[in-house]
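>> Question from a student workshop board

For tomorrow's exercise we were told to take the sequence and the ligand below, predict the bound structure, and bring the output to class. My setup keeps failing. Could a helper post the expected result so I can at least see what it should look like? The ligand is NAI.
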Amino acid sequence: MSDLVGVENRDGISLVTIDNPPVNALSLGVPEGLAVALDQIEKDSSIRAAVLMGAGRTFVAGADIREFGKIKPGSQRCAGHLALFYRVESCAKPIVAAIHGTAFGGGLELAMSAHYRVAVADAQLGQPEVKLGLIPGAGGTQRLPRLAGLAKAVEMCAQGNPIKATEAHQLGIIDRIVEGDLLAGAIAFAKEVSGKPAPKTRERNEELGNAAENAPIFASARQNAQRKQRGLMAPLAAIDAIEAATRMRFEPGCEEEQRLFLQCLFSEQSKALIHVFFGEREVAKIPDVPKETPTIPVNSVGVVGAGTMGGGIAMVFANAGIPVLLKEADQAALDRGLRTIKNNYEISVSRGRFTRAFVDQRMKLIRPTLSFEEFGGVDMIVEAVFEGMALKKEVFAELDRVCKPGAILASNTSSLSIDEIAKATSRPHLVIGTHFFSPANVMRLVEIVRGAATSKEAIATCMSLTKRLGKIGVLVGNCFGFVGNRMFGPYRREAQFLVEEGADIEAVDKAMYEFGMAMGPLATGDLAGLDVGWRIRKENPQLFKEASRKAFIEDRLCELGRFGQKTGAGWYKYDDKRQAASDAEVSALISTWSTKAGIPQRMIAGEEIVERLIYTLVNEGARILEEGYALRAVDIDIIYLNGYGFPSYRGGPMWYADRVGLRQVLQRIREFEQRFGNWWKPAPLLVRLAGQGQTFSELAAKQTVAA
Ligand code: 3HC
Ligand code: NAI
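>> Workshop helper replied:
Here is what the output should look like for this input. Compare the format with yours to find the bug.
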């Protein structure tokens, strides 16, 4: 018997327990242990039924994702799960799956092959494989529609979101919700059904519908997937596999599922998404801030500034149930800020995202004020006033004066030095950057910026707080633009260079959209406001000195008052609903300006646009890594995926470069350096790794980020 699966006889009921912490994944040893347990159940005449459950905090959270990388084409490993679950279902004695925690992926597939399922009310069930670029590969697409009905199965497998056990009960996936002790309830249930014929999910066809009923379900699911999961192949494959369940008998349906599963498993998309899955967990690990580091309890916060960011940040805290004191400079700004918050909540209610009661409660947690005096009681403050060092220092000096000694003082600055801001206080160890992204109540990313004096406790507190807020925190060093914006600068500059050389504005945006970016770089500029960068360039000329070539178009557009969406015109022109249209006037101006500047005009292919824009990100990312402002390449990837609309199925810029091959990336960068000048000087780390045939992913994590 494998020590990952235990079997004991409880008064004629066999209790089979999977014990493979932390999440009871179906790692090597678990299926083998289950097979032995089945042998015993079948052979032992004193056994009348069985209960199958998970030890510790959960049922089974799925196949072991770490093993996927080891599967080679032709391997029988996944088909092995399928065959095992077929055997579970074929057992003549009833098997009851007892579910707590999560029954995800292979875990739900295992539970559906049992003859009955009982669960505690707060358990969750799901087929999240699409989030890993996969589809269920052990019968999930064939059994789930037989239990839950076609439409729900399509939704669960194509979108990957879990459902609560109570909903699963209503749908017929769960047979009974157990109140109180799960094991006792499951054994009682097993006794009730022992001696009765064991029903097999695979033999139930009544929920599978007919071709006429099913066609619109599949059509709308495919349309939805193409729109909301643009570029991803797994959701469409999941729908195809479920369609097979409606057209074929169970066994050939499973074969079709297996074919589609393997196609997904060996795809670049799945490799990238698995990298993202582990990356999201990796970024929480900071070698010199171990998980035992004490944290400062945060039960109330202050937010300074109720503008675009401050208002959103206040909502984020309120949504997590944390009371917020929201401070503005004057009554008019405070009223405006609160109105925007209310409007945003109204939109969420009208879209069904939040209930009215939830929103009313959250609004009550946000207490407006015009004075700093009440800040003495809060545990942490996030400052989100205008971007300017003098103002930030003034605010921090004031916060230092009024806040209690242990309170954390965080800044949402997107470019200013945390160390410089900290100098205005007597507690630099409690000063830190919490760089939320816009809109703060929507975007998942928070860059946690470590200053030279920032304490480990402050870092640990902010990292765990971001998780509590439903965000993903990534620790970064205190360099100009931190990680995300430092890379985004060259990316947007290169987009301008392309346009100066003759590429159409729309062609640049289209190429990047087709690569998978949420928006093209020029449309993004219009959305964020072209004046923001214009102001930074004017205030920091020292940052733009050394290079041979300066991008000039955005500055010219700003001089014309074209700041982007907010002024109705930027790279594009906008109607009053902010719908973009191309602007022939801008194209003509750009062509005149560029010709005057002596820049030869040419047609530029989409491939060159993508290479120049992505490799400029990669080159700057490599510099950041070498200088130590990010701990690992994957930290940069997670920042780009969650803050900049980089397509998840490409794994992030550094992962993408690894997959293209660093030699090839370097070769192109060298060609660009020859053709376009010294902005393209290759990063020394890239040169070294390419020379050694290594990847960014293979680099060891830094102990901590550079301050
Ligand atoms: N395989 C391997 N490791 C896994 C895993 C899995 N299926 N699920 C979680 N882990 C690991 C995590 O990497 C993490 O490791 P770490 O501590 O070294 O960083 C640890 O388990 C704990 O995970 P979380 O930090 O995510 O813990 P939470 O409590 O926040 O969440 C969870 C638990 C909801 C189960 C979440 O981990 C999760 O969603 N896991 C993935 C579930 C999934 O995608 N299952 C489908 C797998 S594919 C499949 O089953 C194919 C089948 O059809 C054949
Ligand atoms: P904003 O201009 O929308 O809001 C700033 C607010 O601060 C204004 O409402 C102003 O009245 C208020 N304010 C000024 N002085 C104050 C004081 N002494 N006390 C209280 N309130 C005061 O600016 P936005 O865009 O919200 O930016 C805030 C910060 O967030 C800046 O540091 C910016 O760099 C950063 N940031 C902005 C992002 C964006 O996309 N807008 C993204 C990420 C960071």
